[in-house]
Design brief:
single chain, five-stranded mixed beta sheet, 9 strands, elongated
Length: about 200
């Protein structure tokens, strides 16, 4: 086993429980977590910058092994004093007609909301900037729930978007670099016990 196993992780991914199991089972191989922008996830894998990565689909799978792990629901992030917060648990597209939909440059959902309004300013560079704009009382942002939690602020709230596009988080690695360390991590993610054989 190598001295280090590098795991890439896109914003919002929560590999903590798998890292804990890795540290228990593989005490001689330290796991290094490398933050990845979604735009860089494929390049980081192919360049060997990371051994494996938690990625957000869609992803060009050519040359990669990809295991979908879970789907995330989209949420609408709005200012804390927005009328949209009157909804107890979720909103639907009809609730968002006339709202200014801010789409940051690192958007991962490519959502279309009929009746929403495009902002009169350039798209923010990233989701954090977009949510800061929302906090100032301008518009809404639609992101996967984990991304909303990652950028949580006291001056914004979010509600689930009923019928919105799901975002799938997956584990990916380069097919030609399926090392024993990668196989060990795949086993952990798939819930194999320390004693179970692969199969």
């Amino acid at each position: 086993m190598p001295a280090t196993f590098t795991l890439g992780a896109i914003p919002g991914a929560t590999p903590g429980k798998w890292i804990d199991i890795w540290n228990e089972r593989m005490p001689r191989t330290s796991l290094e977590l490398v933050p990845l922008a979604v735009a860089d996830q494929r390049r980081a894998l192919l360049d060997g910058e990371v051994d494996a990565a938690l990625v957000r689909l869609p992803l060009d799978k050519d040359g990669l092994h990809v295991i979908p792990l879970y789907d995330e629901v989209p949420v609408v992030v709005c200012a804390k004093d927005s009328h949209l917060t009157a909804a107890e648990d979720e909103l639907d597209a009809a609730d968002l007609v006339g709202e200014v939909l801010i789409v940051p440059q690192d958007d991962v959902l490519a959502i279309q909301l009929p009746g929403s309004v495009a902002p009169r300013f350039a798209p923010p560079a990233d989701t954090g900037e977009a949510i800061a704009t929302v906090a100032a009382g301008v518009g809404i942002v639609v992101v996967p729930m984990s991304v909303a939690r990652l950028h949580h602020r006291k001056d914004v709230e979010y509600r689930a978007l009923s019928g919105g596009p799901l975002s799938t988080v997956a584990l990916a690695w380069t097919a030609e670099r399926t090392t024993p360390a990668v196989e060990a991590f795949v086993g952990i993610v798939r819930g194999r016990t320390a004693n179970s054989s692969r199969g």
